[in-house]
Structure formats: C-alpha cells, structure tokens
Description:
GO terms for molecular function: 4 iron, 4 sulfur cluster binding; 4-hydroxy-3-methylbut-2-en-1-yl diphosphate synthase activity (ferredoxin); 4-hydroxy-3-methylbut-2-enyl-diphosphate synthase activity (flavodoxin); iron ion binding. By secondary structure, the chain is an alpha/beta fold.
Amino acid sequence: MTADIPGAAAAARHATRQVRIGRVLVGSDAPIVVQSMTNTDTADHIATAIQIAQLARAGSELVRITVNNDESARAVPRIFEQLAKMDVDVPIIGDFHYNGHKLLIENPDCAQLLAKYRINPGNVGQGTKRDTQFAQIVELACRHDKPVRIGVNWGSFDQSVLARMMDANAQRATPWDIGAVMREALIVSALESAQAAEGVGLAADRIILSCKVSSVQDLIATYRELARRCDYPLHLGLTEAGMGSKGIVASTAALAVLLQEGIGDTIRVSLTPEPGESRTQEVIVAQEILQTMGLRAFTPMVTACPGCGRTTSTFFQELAQNVQSYVREQMPVWRTQYDGVENLTLAVMGCVVNGPGESKHANIGISLPGTGESPAAPVFIDGQKAVTLRGDNIAAEFRTILDNYVATKYTKKI
C-alpha cells in the first residue's frame, strides 16, 4: 500500500470497521484504496489477465471482473494462473448479477480464488427467489471467508423497496420530492441487505456498502446520509460518470466533497474510455483526486504553469508532458526500489515571472526562458539553484538530474 502524505489534513473517517480484501485493508484508518474494473470478456482469460496486469501496474489496488456465465466463472482459475506467470498479485473481485448464487455453487475454484464478491441487491433475484438467492451468495462468502460489497445502483435497485418507500411517502403530511424518496430507497436497500447478510452469518467486518448514482448532488446527499446511519466502510463512485473531461470533472466534483468530509474508504472513477484509449485512465484519475487533495501519494506530480503571452514557445508544455510521462513510466520500478519516492515534487515553469519562485518550492524545478528572455534554464534542487541548462538537450539532461536525485535522496529498499 502506498503511504499517506505526511501532514495531510482531512476530516476523521466515518467508518470505524475495517475489512480485509486479500492483502488490502479497507476502512477505519487504512489508506483510501483505488480500484478499477476490466471491460474484457472474462471468458477470454488471456485478455482479461493482460488488462488486470495493466490496471495493477498503473496503481489499481483492487480489480473487479464480470462473472456473468459459466464460461467466465470457469476462466477465473486460468486468469490467476496467467497473472502468476506475469508476476502480478492484486486482489480480484467478482461482480455478480442475476445468477451469482448458481455460478459460485457450481464453480468452487472461482468462489475460493476471488478476494471479494460484489452483490447488487436489485439483481440477485425476483420475488420470493430474491431472499433465498441473496442468502445463498452470503453463505458461500461465509464458507470461503470472503468479504462482500453490497452495491446498490439507482439504475437497478430493488423495486420492492422503492414501492415501499413511495407508499410511506404518500402517507406523510408533507411528502418528499421523488429524488429524496429514491435516495432513501437506495440507503434502505443497502442497510437492510447488510442486516440480512449479518443475519445469515456474515460478520459485520466483512461487509462494504455502496449506493451509486450518476448525479453529483444526489451522490453527495446519499452518501452523507448513508455515512450518518452506519459504520461500514463505503465504496465511492459516480456510476456512469461519462467520457473524457465530463466524466473526470463530475467524478472529482462528487468524490472530493465526500472525501474531504471523511466519507469514503475505497474509490473508483467510472470513466467511459475514449475509443482506443487505455482502461488505466480511470486509475490515474482516481490517484490524482486523492493526491491533489493531500490524502494519498502515488507518483511524483508536475506543477506547470498554464502559459501566457510571455510563453509563446510550446517547449515548456512539451517538457512538462515529457517529465510527467517519464515519472509514471518509472514509478513501477522506483516503487520497488525506493521508500517515499511518491512524495517527490517537480515543477516545470515557462518564464521568469513565477518560474524561479515556484521551482524553489519543488524538490526539483526548472524555469524555462519565456519570450525575449535569455536562452537559459536554471534548475533548482531543494530550493537552491544547482545548474543552468542550455541548448537542445534540456529534456534529457533534466531527466538525468531527476534520476540522480531519486537515487541519492530516497532510501533504497532492502
């Protein structure tokens, strides 16, 4: 697990319980955990293992896979075998809807290998079958000593709960608006399902709850009330967040408010990938939310100015992008070799106005020449000017300075 940022200020976490998922702790005073989900056909064990490896190497600490049919359930052992060959060790969560009870009963290897089961109470069965099939999954979780996330989603939650809430609302002297009734139905579904799971025999410290919606304000309101009414660890995520900047902004707007209030123990950013783009983008965004808030540190991040009329050259933009990409590429190696390297701060600035000052605040900073300035780029290390770079090889020379700093300033792991 990556360390917390020293001195980071945040509200006390709401969850007093702590759940172990494989080697990862979630809840209480454990670091907030980043998770993600594959979008491969799980039955294709090679493609799924490759994507799990990509997500894990990007920094996903938990990875969820769809288990929706016999083929995908039977593929789980082969996925684990392939991951072992790739030297990837990350807890894998099984996502079950409609037929999870059947798949887990008929595929005991799958049931044993998965680190956690995710159940949607609205999709475990209809009518009289719902309670029986929910209980069967929970009994299997108890038998295999697996935690369970009870994940309610407003696109597919238990309609019987909503009907009951609507009937109760009709009896109120001043009825709630429909949004408030739906939020209450989500919360009640999660809490009643958790109570039912405990009734079957699942320990309270093996339960995580989530109530996902796709509206920022509804998500904030729902989780505030859910946190007030329980002490289970909570999984946060704006469901169906969307694509590109919309999905990033919406997820950040919702999660940042809740995390600042101490609500949330594990997060996922549910981005729709751009065509041809890597699934790992959702991991990077989740990490950057936590890191920019001062709640976790994952990788050195680059402070860079936005540019103005003094920076008509694009070189500082290219260098900032180059450095940020370089440190992300190096982190899988650095993380295994050096303690604390994720706390390194970097600055790439474009002119003399804020360049030297901002560079002095970073562990390593460079102030590039703006329009009309002398063609020289002073580099500051821990607040002191160390060297001035010139010429066409500035990017490579700056990376060398970065490599040397990491190798000499951070303690090597034994």
